[in-house]
Please model this.
Amino acid sequence: MSTFRIEEADRPHVIRLAILWVILSVIGVIAVLQIQIPPGDETVQGADQTRTLSLMTAMATPVFIGVVMMIIYSAIYFRRKGRELVDGPPMLGNAPVQVVWITVSTIMVLFLAFVGITELATNSSAQTVPGQSSGTAAAGGSEMQVQVIAQQWYFTYRYADYSGVETTHLYLPVDRPVELHVTSLDIIHSFWAYQLGVKADANPGVDNVFHVTPQKLGSFQVRCAELCGIWHGEMADSQGQVVSQSDFDSWIAQQQQDYAAIQKVVPSYAPFYFPLPLTKGS
Amino acid sequence: MVRRLSFTAAGVVIVIILVIAFVGLFMLRRPGTLEGTPTTIHLETVAAVGAANEWPRPDDPHPDWVGYLPTTILRVPANSTINMQIDQEDGATGLRNPFWGKVFGTEGGNMHMTYFDDKGNPQEGDMTSIDPTQAAHTFAIPDLGVFVPLLGVNSNAPAGSTNVITFSFKTKGPGIYHWQCFVPCAAKTVFGNGGPMQTLGYMAGELIVS
Model:
């Protein structure tokens, strides 16, 4: 193994690059940390995602700056002069440099993988529950169950803990863990409430479970993230709300009152539904 | 060689022009606009646009498609009360989501309907919901929170009968609001949501608020 040695002539370049890299990296990381990376902190899960994305972006910034800086620096200082076509000096491998480079890269990638997997395995855990037929929803647990039902071209919501009342907007109480059950009545949709940090496929016959805990009062948007027909672009709702528990209680009571008119003919709350006919006239 | 290249280049240019023309014509093709007088809209829903009672379109490229007539592009004033009358001539298909059997977002939270009961006798009344299995169509403007189910004509009603549904709703500020049917009423398409459900001028429409 050859020893790591810097040629005398290269030292000014190395020192210059190192100083420049440190300064630009510090500036870059500080700048990156000022960016409000979505989804934000409206939910515990969203805050975790934002934190993870910020960490990953901050770690990637010095690498990005180093690569771009080397390219620009080389293009300026090591530019071929004159019109004569001459091969550059032969470049042989430098084992110490390669060892450092591979080791540092491996440590960074493994660290980021550990952070990402840990994040996925804890706060933003999702669970898909394919089933065979409609049945009753799993009851109990401290989380409030809310079912998201996609259909061309609107989302409706059923609250299992409130006699399965169905609503046209999604209201969630603050500081209360929620278990979202996402399904579809027709084709594939995708429930995307990015401020909540949730993006879940809505597939017919599938109960796609996501967990979310709102921690800030405010509104959020819901939209479909799966191309689903002529009004896909309109399959959105900006009236999602995170409200206080007392406001939620008032709202859900009103919804239950309104729902009474149709409750008898709406099927019981189930993980998913298979309404018929699949083809009109078939 | 030059001649062959010229023919090839000319062919490519012609194909490109044809493709652009086809796409352009497709995108420019829109149904006409119905302007309220000034806040009243009268529509008709039929099982086949070629065989409607009031505004038949026998020359339509899809005369057997279900549709709203005379058009699905509606222009109405902003921040106004719109009085709707829908003459519903189609039979029941049923809702995929029974929840839409309830009336939402209308003035008074209800609709007025003349219809025919199971014995074929004419009936009339204000309603806040209908049996979801007996829905023929819905008139829904999701961004305005307006969802109105339209009862299918009873099979025991006299031939050519029409259910007349009237209701009012308020518009918001200027903008283009899509409206749609939640009944999967496109016959012989998967989930009943193909063809006319995906095409402006049949079961898909725009409410232009200006």
